[in-house]
Amino acid sequence: MVTVDKAxxxxxxxxxxxxxxxxxxxxxxxxxxxxxxxxxxMLAVNIVFSDAKKGDxxxxxxxxxxxxxxxIEKAAEMIVKHGEVQLTTDFKRKRIEEKKRQVAALISRxxxxxxxxxxxxQDRILSVMEQAHAQIDPFKPAEQQMDDIVKLLKPIIPLSxxxxxxxxxxxxxxxxxxYGILKEFNIxxxxxxxxxxxxxxITLPAGLKEVIFKKLGALTEGNATIEEVKK
Length: 231
Prior knowledge:
This protein folds into 3 domains: 4-85, Ribosome maturation protein SBDS, N-terminal domain (Hypothetical 12.0 Kda Protein In Nam8-gar1 Intergenic Region, Chain: A, 2-Layer Sandwich); 89-153, Arc Repressor Mutant, subunit A (Orthogonal Bundle); 163-229, 2-Layer Sandwich (Alpha-Beta Plaits). It is 42% helix and 21% strand. It has 9 helices and 9 strands. The chain has helices at residues 25-32, 39-42, 60-67, 72-82, 89-110, 122-131, 142-153, 172-182, 209-219; strands spanning 8-14, 17-23, 49-51, 56-57, 84-85, 163-170, 186-192, 198-205, 225-229. The longest helix has 22 residues, at 89-110.
């Protein structure tokens, strides 16, 4: 568990109320990055504040209304995932650099130079990202940022990212959570069927096909229908 003096503030607004918690910056960042973390280790204290600096607490009733639970760890998870985490400048710079390297690695792996039909080295991609002043979101998955960065780099270096379209159908039981995964990619058709299931077409880099199969397969316990739409 992080000590109070080394913790940072995560804040969230809901129902006109302000919620703050004191968290470990490393663990909070990992949680925002959709990693599995220990919520008990993330929290400096098991308290939800309206103003952490003043020590003003939120009432149990307000916590229950906002988060549907009085479990502080569950409320803290929602505050971090959906709210703002006040990272220090040095910590944020470090995380942006790490995410930048992840994006560059993906581009080097999945995109090619259409003139030579071979990938650009990762260091070359990083160099051009600097030249293009690419803006990296430290909390957004690298896979979601790759397409925008490729578009930004194309005027500078020859770069091609092959894309595929998938038809996906998700049973009603998993549809709500699965939609969150589908939003990571380019949804160009979606329809909620009468039985509550979800049918959608998504476009994504060809190299991420295995990623979406694994994510949806794990979420739906193998009950998702995923088919590639032939051009």
